[in-house]
Amino acid sequence: MMDAKKNGLAPVSALKYLFKKPHTVRYPKEDLEVFSTKGISPNYRGFHTNDLEKCIGCGNCATVCPASAITMVKDEKVEPKRKFATKYRPVIDYGRCCFCAQCVDICPTGSLQMSREYIHSFHPDLSIPVEEEPESVIKDFIWRPDETNSDNPGYVRVEGDLLNKTIDFDRTDPRTKPAEERKFSFAKYVYTYSKEEAEREASRCLGCGHCVEACPNQLHIPEYINAIAKGDPQESLDWIYKRNPLPLICGEVCTHQCEEACVVGIQGEPLAIRWLKAYSASNVEDYRKALEVQPGKPNGKKIAAVGAGPASLTLGYYARRLGYEVTIYESESKPGGAMMWGIPKYRLPKEDLMKDINTILSLGIDLKLNVKIGKDLPIDELLKSYDAVFVGTGNAKPMTLRIEGENLPGVMQGLTFMHLVNEEKAPELKGKRVVVIGGGNVAMDVARSSVRFGANVTVLYRRRIVDMPADPEEIKEAQEEGIEFVEAGVPIKIYGDKSAEEIEYAIASLVPDPKGGRPRPVVDEKSPHRRIKIDYVVAAIGQHPNLDFLPEEMQKKIGFDGRRVPVDEYGRTSIEGLFFGGDLSNRRQDIISAIGAGQRAAKGIDLYLASQK
Q: What pTM value is reported for the model?
């Protein structure tokens, strides 16, 4: 058959198109009735729409776009409603866009969609709010109802499908012992991931890095999770160690604020970032050998650290890597600070704790135990003997209840109780009635430890359970273990002749915070009062720093207000060569924040001593 293109009659046959209506619309001038009559092609996917209220600016759409058609643009007018959301919003270049809709598939909030219901102008700023929309944009943005195929919404993503790969929005948590088994034992009750479990959980990561912004020390979280997904825990640990030399400790007891920012958790459950870190650290026996960690070339300078908690240990690690000679002074018989004495073994086994600590000490740090600065050795002597001094003693001074009867035998502070527990000197609690006052992690540790000793435990908290600062899983597991919670309970008085026998508390009214914070408990004459019999009361309502080892004039000079020491970004105080870090100088008061403070102080001391040359 002769090719139609070479047929001499082809030009004549083309004349038939003169009498047909065009398939295209003379946009934007043609009447909408013509458009509605012609309809939209059934295969037309539509243009992108973005719900700016839902969008969190994670940038996953821009990362996945195979045509590089999406750019994240900062819009200062956006007021993010979700915690950790950014002001960045996607702008789509339709000259590049291939309408594959992978960006729609990967959007974790579902804010990015496609619609056949209208035709966009090709103005590049249409996807985000603009201060003053150009007149051309207003004219070219025309509503086009799809009457012919009204049942076809355009491209709609299939939930759970991403780039031909199933996204599991359901989290794989580590296996745990059941409550009836674990509540009578101080053995670790959370099992480390298996290789298959870890890789499955790690494969859910989208790699956007939102978690990094939420982490107080900005760990390389997507990188170490990706290494786990590839089956390489050693590479994962290498990424962790760049900013955190206490990986197993953080893997087991970190407050994991990063998980609050995880975008997968918007429509599903957030990645188990903390437990993935624990998996990497647990699967590398010798950190130093595996990561080839060595101290730096000696530079002849000496640093002293007061307190062997996470801030000082981290400072020591990074300072040794820079070549400094480091001595840590600790008043207790073992290093670790609150990690050693304040956290029960069922959450942080001592062998796991010492695995991290011994790796740091093996770099050549001189640890001097049972030395009380201010008593055995004046702080002034440290400042004279060392080129720089770092103080990371944490918060060791408990807050008091300020109620009648709190000095009776049988009433103690939360950290005091946990110290006794970790020393294996806790009082006999089997069958005893214990009331724990407070709602933080220390209160949960006290309550759950008491249950393991056989006590009947009640937690008294002055707000609602949902307002508790303790980790939600700690609260949930405490409830599973049979601990009773009393909401809006404010202690009034402790009764007893020779020891605590009864506690009176009021049920407060909770007044909403106009700024959206936790409600304020109010006790007045209308508040009902109740009394319950007790054997022990443990107050776990917070701690303050104890700087009694510093002379009073030195405390004034550094601006200590009884709660916090003001420092610059590197922990430097107003006294030459004196640095502070950890709970003494930050509001979060958790391990990862202390690690960050120690790392920054190491850099600050290095800069300070370099300037002294």
A: 0.86
